[in-house]
Amino acid sequence: MRYITRALANDKTSALRGLTEGIPHNKALGIQALELDKGTALFVLRYDPKLVGNPDTGTLHGGAITALLDGASGASVFAALAEWKPIATLDLRIDYQRAADAGKDVLCRAHCYKVTKNVAFTRAVAYHDDEADPIATSAGTFMLGTKPGGKRS
Amino acid sequence: MTILDQLIAAKANKDYAAMFEAIPYARLLGLAPEVDGDGLITRMKYGEHTIGNAALPAIHGGAIGALLESAAIFELLYRAETIVLPKTITITVDYLRSAGPHDTFARGSITRHGRRVANVRVEAWQTDRTQPVATAHAIFLVMS
Fold first, then answer.
1. Interface test with A, best of B44, B74, B93 (most A CBs within 10 A)
2. Cβ-nearest to B62 among A70, A93, A99
3. A46-75, pLDDT tens digit by residue?
4. Which residues does A100 contact at the CB level (< 8 Å), separation at least 6?
5. Beta-carbon contacts of residue B3 (< 8 Å; ≥ 6 apart)
6. Which among A24, A39, A70, B109 could bridge B51 via Cys, Cβ 3.0 to 4.6 Å?
7. Which residue out of B19, B21, B95 would a mutagenesis test of the A interface target, given it has the greatest number of A Cβ atoms within 10 Å?
8. How many CB pairs (< 8 A) connect A and B?
9. Which secondary structure element, helix H or strand E, spans residue A9, and what is its range?
């Protein structure tokens, strides 16, 4: 992930590509990073029948929304840090407000609203067209400066 | 046959694999049931498509979250007398350790099953059952 923060300062396009092409789970699900700015990230999940939780309604599985919210939230932390640090999700709470509509892409805007010495705090919202009509919202905390291997210091 | 009919038929036949296969996203993630003396375990087969950090490598937090949510739902379907499709209201995942390139297992336990709402706790682990990689608690709407 180091190159993403480096790229963020110099070349935003390659940072966005890194978050999309460089993360196999995002590629498998059809999650793309669209925008990164100071402490914010905008991601999209492309609708695909393989992501469905209820085949009768065509509604996306909650797990696909989880991956979208988690990925965008993590990216917003990278976008909030002045210099690169490894990060690890401590916890993520997701509240589902309504089912996603069949056939529609899902956008996710994440905001890292506070960074302390050890911990970053995020909020994110997943929606179709209108952020005021959310599919799901999340609150996350991330540990900063984790040891190589993803272990917490 | 509706999804509910499929789940009811699978449960009547104790064919839990059919229950998992009825859900497209469970197929994509590579989820499969294992039944032991204590009940149902949901297994997520390791695959490159679950990776979030290719350098470590580590499984994506979203894949772990999806496994925990699915394991909670399958636990409700496994234990329920009357099958309804649980709708997730909220889930909170605590990430405890980096999940490496291995199969991941999860077991749910229902803490309360009311008329409208069910509360479920879930734990996920990999090679060592005593070293969970993540835990979650989730609340579902369980009305027919």
1. B93
2. A70
3. 999 999 999 999 999 999 999 999 999 999
4. A59, A60, A65, A106, A126, A128, A135
5. A54, A55, A56, B22, B23, B85
6. A24
7. B95
8. 140
9. helix A2-10
Beta bridge partners of B53: B58
| Phi, psi for A60 (deg, rounded to 5) | -65, 145
Q: Using a CB–CB cutoff of 8 Å, tell me whether B58 touches chain A.
A: yes
Task: Say what the ipTM of the complex is.
Answer: 0.93
Separation between Cα atoms, residue B103 and residue A113, nearest integer Å:
35
